[in-house]
Write a structure and sequence with these properties.
Layout: H1 12-27, H2 31-40, H3 50-60, H4 66-79, E1 80-81, H5 92-100, H6 110-122, H7 124-127, H8 131-136, H9 140-149, H10 165-171, H11 180-192, E2 200-203, E3 210-211, H12 212-217, H13 230-239, H14 247-253, H15 260-267, H16 276-282, H17 289-302, H18 306-314, H19 341-347, H20 351-359, H21 369-379, H22 382-388, H23 392-398, H24 402-408, H25 414-420, H26 442-449, H27 452-460, H28 476-482, H29 486-492
Parallel strand pairs: 1-2
Antiparallel strand pairs: 2-3
């Protein structure tokens, strides 16, 4: 029975409309809709009532009933927040909170936090008058008085983001000089007064949640700074009952080679248990502890983070099972499908990860045909490349953007070999993960990373400096300038048209 992943930030009204459309089209005899009904309705293909069409919609998205689907969507609506869309505040307190905290928008920048710091200095009485502002400021004395005066306020939703006070504390970034003692005292006051250590929200309705733990640890694609006392604050939350299986915290911190957060979370139950209150609320839409560990292993393997691979391996992550696409989700990482972690390390050119896996007891990679050729090229195995050269055409078909991935791995010696094997030096793919999605060229990657020798190599091999990437419509020169890479910008400027 085919299922489809529920859309991000689902809308119940749109799902109701979809059910009505299915009812009407099934009555009209639309073949594709009748097939859908046949897959998910107990009476098989044919006309259905509105209730029957709603059941089809629910089961198509992996829910046993329309009521279960409705409850799930309503839960998402209950916790949905869009802090980056809040543009104005009604008073000084809300303006301080609006400016002081990470909200994962384009303006999470020091100048915002500096404005919040000035507001707090200019209006200390306002900050001390609000449990949410006092939490953000880690003003323990004011917080203690406010909590005593208003029992239950530790869990009150408020401020511009409609958050609990604990979230304002853990997402605050306005005061890099805040002391560890003040931070811990504020956190413990809130927790003792009933604050939920698993407090969180769904950013734009997306799963997994941004929890208090997520806020303390920081990170993310934009490199948001952690709380000044991130690990100490995170440890206090975990000790108080925060679930260590925090998918968003893991995602946000996975980009850095620092494994401090992994060690902390593993010590407090990462990979064990039932996934905590958020998985109870969100069900299988929230990754299980086992899935989180496997996902983190996948990232560590494909980015050659040998230390993290070792940590995850010794804490029970399955290091031999092949990766497959989860049910109901698109096959978005075809280089992973059917491959063990060790095999994945080999075809991604990650020898440190491969060695860490085999040292932990994983079976050595067993590759043949085009995958063996790709592994040989990325490993610099000249005899292996010569022996496997007949598989070049199939390798190009499977991994047309391999030059881009080689550039992302700084495997400059592999790129001339790939070009000789017929790979396109101007192909587009992703540089962040081994995925054949046409985003940018190898020259974009080298220019943005400031790799002068890499840029020269690619140009000598025929890379086109005038090509625009598919996401930002920018040339490699544009990437060099955006990322402040003066040397590669200087090299590309006279070669770029216009």
């Amino acid at each position: 029975m085919a299922t489809a992943r529920l859309p991000d930030d689902p809308n119940l009204a749109q799902l109701r409309k979809l059910a009505k459309d299915i009812r009407d089209l099934a009555r009209a005899g639309e073949p594709s809709v009748l097939e859908l009904v046949g897959d998910h309705h107990p009476d098989g293909p044919g006309p259905v009532s509105l209730a029957g069409a709603q059941l089809v919609v629910a089961r198509h998205h992996g829910f046993p009933s329309w009521a279960a689907l409705r409850r799930h969507v309503e839960t998402i609506g209950l916790y949905r927040r869009a802090p980056d869309e809040v543009s104005a505040a009604d008073d000084i307190v809300d303006e301080f909170l609006l400016l002081a905290c990470l909200r994962y928008g384009a303006d999470d920048i020091p100048s915002r936090w500096e404005r919040a710091r000035r507001l707090a200095a200019e209006h200390p009485e306002a900050v001390r008058s609000s449990v949410h502002a006092a939490a953000a400021a880690a003003d323990a004395d004011a917080l203690a008085a406010l909590l005593d005066a208003a029992p239950g306020s530790a869990t009150a939703l408020g401020g511009p983001y409609h958050w609990e006070p604990l979230l304002y504390l853990t997402y605050a970034r306005h005061d890099p000089e805040v002391s560890e003692a003040a931070t811990l005292k504020a956190a413990r006051l809130l927790l003792a007064a009933g604050a939920d250590p698993n407090a969180g929200y769904l950013w734009h309705g997306l799963i997994p949640p941004f929890t208090a733990l997520t806020g303390a640890l920081g990170g993310g694609e934009g490199g948001a700074p952690p709380h000044p006392h991130a690990i100490t604050l995170a440890r206090a939350l975990l000790t108080a009952g925060a679930d260590a299986n925090d998918g968003q915290a893991l995602y946000n911190r996975q980009f850095s080679a620092d494994d401090t957060h992994v060690e902390l979370l593993l010590a407090h139950g990462l990979g064990r248990g039932d996934g905590g209150p958020w998985r109870t609320r969100l069900g299988d839409a929230q990754d299980s502890p086992v899935q989180l560990m496997r996902g983190q292993l996948w990232w560590a393997v494909t980015h050659d983070m040998a230390g993290r691979v070792h940590l995850l391996a010794v804490h029970g992550t399955d290091i031999d099972a092949a990766y497959e696409a989860p049910d109901g989700r698109p096959a978005f990482l075809r280089t992973s499908h059917g491959r063990t972690p060790a095999e994945l390390a080999a075809i991604c050119g990650c020898p440190g990860a491969r060695d860490a896996l085999t040292a932990a007891g994983a079976s050595p990679p067993e590759l043949t045909g085009p995958e063996a050729l790709i592994a040989a090229v990325l490993a610099g195995d000249v005899p292996g490349v010569d022996r496997l050269r007949p598989h070049a055409a199939e390798a190009r078909r499977r991994r047309p953007g391999l030059v881009v991935w080689a550039a992302s791995r700084k495997a400059w010696g592999a790129i001339p070999v790939l070009v000789k094997l017929g790979f396109d030096v101007n192909a587009m793919a992703r540089v962040d993960i081994p995925m054949e999605q046409a985003w940018e060229t190898a020259l974009h990657s080298a220019a943005g990373d400031g790799e002068v020798d890499g840029v020269r190599l690619l140009l000598d091999l025929g890379a086109d400096p005038d090509l625009h990437d598919a996401r930002f419509d920018a040339t490699p020169l544009g990437w060099a300038e955006h990322f402040g890479q003066a040397a590669t910008a200087e090299l590309l400027r006279p070669l770029t048209s216009g």
